[in-house]
Amino acid sequence: MAEPNGEFGQAVKDALEWLGATPETGGALLGINARTLGAMCQGIVPMRSLIIRFADEMRRHCERQSGAPDWWKDVDSWLTVAGYAPRRDGANGEGMPGERRGPSERHPAPERPAPQRPAEPTRVAAAPAFRPVPAHAAASPRAMQAAPAVDALDEEPAREFYHPVYERMTRGDRVVHIFRILDREDQPAYQITMGAEVDYKARAAQVKQDLADLSKSQFERKYGRFRVEQS
Question: What is the pLDDT along the chain (231 residues), one digit of tens a residue?
Fold first, then answer.
């Protein structure tokens, strides 16, 4: 049996939080039974067809309301995070979790650096606009070549660059909690959306603690999946 996929499990949890649902209540929204959703939250990857069904339903919800990361609308991105080959890469058959391939450069997983594929170097240019930054990723060659002044800024405390703003909103018949993390120009850099049942005070305390404890670069890596895409 394959080991749990922590990156996939966290992404499913975040998606359910954004929907204001739990594994028990999310079945009706996503067309997947509660037991399977619970296993997915634990990083247990189901059959490829179930990932596609889950991703299709998430895309429909994302198109109806705002606040979701762009990559949640892309079925291939969900397949890659789960460890399957994207559909556009020509994979066929449903496969089993134990036979999954690693993430491709076109759809890097949120918490793991994308492996190099020398045979297809041009894929890098076709990468999607949303590229989550792994929490433990080392500096890229481009970052290593940056000027010393830029590196010094990256190591300064995150609180010098960002500050959080809380907002409570009503969407239809449910309440959601929204944390926007603004930059020095008061522009939204990150956004975290949570359902009414989530302990938003604990999440707010964690965000403030991270702003105080982490450097700018560490904070940006940890919260990369909540990055707001600038138009």
Answer: 568 899 999 999 999 999 999 999 988 889 899 999 999 999 999 999 999 999 999 999 999 988 999 999 999 999 999 999 998 644 444 444 444 444 433 344 444 444 444 444 444 444 444 444 444 444 444 444 444 444 677 888 988 888 998 888 887 778 778 878 988 888 888 888 878 778 878 888 888 888 888 888 888 888 888 888 865
Sequence-separated (6 or more) residues with CB below 8 Å from residue 67: 18, 176, 178, 191, 193
92 CB-near residues (< 8 Å, 6+ apart): none
**Distance of alpha carbon 121 from alpha carbon 140, whole angstroms:** 16
Q: How many CA atoms lie within 13 A of 205 on its CB side?
A: 4
Domain assignments of the chain as residue spans, ordered by start: 6-111, 141-226
Residue that is written with structure tokens 């970052």 in the block: 143
Pair 86, 106: CB distance under 8 Å: yes
d(CA 108, CA 76): 10
Residue 196 is classified by DSSP as T
Return the bridge partners of 170, or none.
175
Q: Measured between alpha carbons, how far is 185 from 180 in angstroms, rounded to an integer?
A: 13
Residue pair 41/35 in contact (Cβ under 8 Å)? The answer is no
Alpha-carbon 132 to chain mean position = 6
What CATH architecture is 6-111? Orthogonal Bundle (1.10)
